[in-house]
Each structure stands twice: as structure tokens, then as C-alpha cells.
Design a protein that fits this description.
Layout (H helix, E strand, L loop, with lengths): L6 H13 L3 H12 L3 E2 H4 L5 H6 L4 E3 L4 E2 L9 E2 L9 H11 L4 E5 L11 H14 L4 E5 L7 H9 L4 E3 L9 H4 L5 H14 L4 E8 L5 H13 L4 E6 L16 H13 L4 E4 L9 H18 L1
Parallel strand pairs: 2-5, 3-4, 5-6, 7-8, 8-9, 9-10
Antiparallel strand pairs: 1-2
Helix pairs in contact: 5-6, 6-7, 7-9
């Protein structure tokens, strides 16, 4: 049975929607529209997009706005995608430069139609950003590349600060929620990254409200740590439409505080947990938190 959204969460979402109408947010969106760029903020109907646009932040969604899979939680359209835009690396790099962005998050729909899953395009965008603004850090939030580690290596070779890939939910719900994905494949991808490029921080995220239990959440967090994941985000699942998987419960704010404490207690360098937290929410701040933790740990040795 679908849960009723609590009044406190409605107020949070409402404040973020109101922030979309400010001059700064409108100017930021107009700039993205002029460059014909997709953002996950819009395509995935992120509830934080008003706040982020007012901060001059956006998560760029490269490789178009259509996905080759049909996950039951996701707002991105499942359609036959268009070929990659060869001008996109320059468009993204130009926007990063013009907005004076210092930490750029890049994501994409799953592109099973491409031989490398889009890995080469990720790398091209990252390298073009570095050429335009060498001091920018990038965080590619990648699909699973169908488990092809050579494609993951293509992205790692481009030099990200953080490599992100979302596990999304507990393994017991994959058959309902993540059509075409595989829990072990995602864990293997994250583990490979830590072994192949130990200097790169790894990151993953999960959603609450799909029917998972506390025991299953704990086991999933432990699996992520065992795969060497450094950073984790936990947020509330919000159904994009009535055709998507229903929301079975809404976690209270105290539960997110508990998960944040638990994640840090088992070794995550950084954890962002809250009702409207998404994988790219304040990504630069979470990265800096992790680097500070690394420095503090090094001083103790």
C-alpha cells in the first residue's frame, strides 16, 4: 500500500520548488537551455534542483536524455537514444568554465546501445573540461557498463577525483526495481575501481522507501565497504509518477541521522543522509570531507 507523504516532507519539497523561481535559478536554467545541455536535476526530477541552481551547481547529464533500461524508480525516459553529440564535451566544458564551477558531476542514462556503454564519451567530456579549466575536479556517476571493466578503465584513465556508481537498493529488491541491473556486477565494478585506481575515491548511493528492511540496509552498506567504497549517500525514494514503483514508507529524519552515524562507524570516509539527499547532492562538500578524514588519519599514523 502506498504511503502518505508526511507534511514535513511536503514543506521541504515545496521550499525547493519555490527556489526554482528565483532570478539566479532562472538564469542558470536559461544558460543550460541555451547550451542544449541535459541535467539530471531536470531529467530525474531531483527535488533539490532549486537549491542547487541557486548555488550555481548542476549535475550534467551527458549522452542524451533517453535510457535503454526501464528501472521502476527512475524518471528518465526509456526510449531509443540518439547518437552521442560530438559537440557535447565542448558545451559542458564551456558551461563549467563560464559558471566558475570547481567540482563537476557528470552522469548519463544507461547506454547499452553503445559498444563501450558511453565510457569514451565520459572520458572525452572530462578531458575537455580539464583542458579548459585545469583546476576543476570531476565526479563521473556512471552506469554499470554491463560489467566491462575495460570500459570502466577508460573513465578511470581520464583522471576523476571520485568515481560514483549507485547500488540504488538492497539486492532482495533488484528483481522489482532495477530491471537489467545486477547487484554483484555493481559491487564488482566498485571493487575494481578501488584496486585499479586507489587514489580515486569511490562513491555509491541507496534509496529508502522501496520495501527494504533495516537488516538489509545494514548488509548493503557492509557490502559497499567490503568493496572499498569511500563515500555513501542515502535518501528518500520519491515516485516520479503513478506508473513507477510505489513508495512503501517515508523514513523520519532521525533515521537518516542514525544511518549517517552507522556508515561512518563502519569506515566510510563521508556519508550524506537525509530525506532529499541524492547521489550528487553537495558532492564537492562530501569530497572535501573525505579528503580531510584521510589527512587526519594520516597524521595519526
Amino acid at each position: 500500500m502506498t504511503a502518505q507523504i508526511p507534511s514535513w516532507l511536503k514543506e521541504m519539497v515545496g521550499r525547493n520548488k519555490a527556489a526554482l523561481r528565483t532570478q539566479q535559478a532562472l538564469e542558470a536554467q536559461n544558460g543550460l537551455d541555451r547550451a542544449a545541455l541535459h541535467t539530471v536535476c531536470v531529467e530525474a526530477k531531483c527535488p533539490n534542483r532549486g537549491e542547487c541552481l541557486n548555488c550555481g551547481d548542476a549535475t550534467f547529464m551527458i549522452l542524451g536524455g533517453f535510457c535503454t533500461r526501464g528501472c521502476k524508480f527512475c524518471a528518465v525516459n526509456k526510449q531509443k537514444p540518439l547518437p552521442p553529440d560530438p559537440a557535447e564535451p565542448q558545451k559542458v566544458a564551456g558551461t563549467v568554465r563560464d559558471w566558475h564551477i570547481r567540482y563537476a558531476v557528470l552522469t548519463s542514462p544507461t547506454r547499452d546501445d553503445l559498444p563501450d556503454g558511453g565510457a569514451g564519451h565520459f572520458a572525452a567530456v572530462m578531458r575537455t573540461i580539464y583542458a579548459a579549466t585545469p583546476d576543476v575536479l570531476t565526479e563521473p556517476l556512471i552506469p554499470d557498463f554491463r560489467g566491462q571493466m575495460k570500459d570502466l578503465q577508460t573513465v578511470l584513465d581520464a583522471g576523476p577525483a571520485v568515481l560514483a556508481h549507485n547500488i540504488e537498493t538492497v539486492p532482495q529488491l533488484y528483481h522489482e526495481v532495477r530491471i537489467g541491473a545486477d547487484y554483484k556486477r555493481s559491487l564488482d565494478l566498485l571493487a575494481y575501481c578501488k584496486k585499479a585506481a586507489p587514489q580515486v575515491l569511490t562513491k555509491s548511493g541507496i534509496m529508502l522507501g522501496l520495501g527494504e528492511t533495516e537488516t538489509q540496509i545494514k548488509a548493503t552498506l557492509q557490502d559497499l565497504r567490503a568493496a572499498g567504497v569511500d563515500l555513501v549517500t542515502i535518501g528518500q525514494y520519491l515516485a516520479p509518477s503513478k506508473q513507477h514503483h510505489e513508495v512503501l514508507r517515508y523514513a523520519e529524519p532521525a533515521e537518516y541521522a542514525m544511518w549517517q552515524e552507522y556508515a561512518r562507524s563502519i569506515g566510510f570516509l563521508g556519508a550524506a543522509c537525509g530525506p532529499l539527499v541524492r547521489s550528487s547532492y553537495r558532492a564537492g562538500a562530501l569530497y572535501r570531507e573525505a579528503k580531510l578524514q584521510q589527512q587526519m588519519s594520516a597524521k595519526k599514523l
